[in-house]
Amino acid sequence: MKKASLAGVSITTMFYVLCGCVGYAAFGNNAPGNFLTGFGFYEPFWLIDFANVCIAVHLIGAYQVFCQPIFGFVEARCHERWPESKFITTEHAVDIPFYGVYCFNFFRLVWRTVYVMVTAVIAMIFPFFNDFVGLIGAASFYPLTVYFPIEMHIARSKIPKFSFTWIWLKILSWACLVVSLVAAAGSLQGLAKDLKTYKPFKAQ
């Protein structure tokens, strides 16, 4: 699992960094948010369509992965709060041909469907996707990806204060904090600019 995670994160990071750096090097602040069609080129159509299908598959999978902790948290709390509710606790078995028995729960079905609908409506109301995702990424990157892992490594490995390793880990942590703050500032500037021409349910 460790090797698979390392390979997956490394490959993903390489592609994202390449897209960001090459796009900015070529176009600066005029780099389009959509690298597929933002340049005004729509041919060959089949290639653009194939790339969009790949993006959709990637995002559907990512959405499932990121939503599972929220689903699990809400469902566990509801089970604790209303243990006598049959709507929340009862599992219904359905025999599906060529699959077998599938168990589903009405609460899970309703709650997850409503959650997906609400997030979809919110995404359509606020169409400035790139700046909003940039702000969320900047806010979550430093604490989750840098600060906590570094502090846990220092505590677990019992690295002495002011040792060579400790100093370089702290330099890395502070450098990443600066990058996150700059990214957040850029995203806020982009959001402020988008809000001037904002219309609900209209893509920028």
TrEMBL record:
Membrane-spanning intervals of the chain: 7-27, 47-67, 109-126, 132-150, 171-192
Residue span(s) of domain Amino acid transporter transmembrane: 1-191
Entry keyword annotation includes Transport: yes
Any one Gene Ontology cellular component term annotated for this protein: membrane
Pfam families to which the protein is assigned, alphabetical: Aa_trans
Locations listed in the record: Membrane
The entry's keywords: Amino-acid transport, Membrane, Transmembrane, Transmembrane helix, Transport
GO biological-process terms attached to the record: amino acid transport
UniProt xrefs under PANTHER family: OS05G0424000 PROTEIN-RELATED (PTHR48017)
Descriptive protein name: Putative amino acid permease 6
Organism: Davidia involucrata
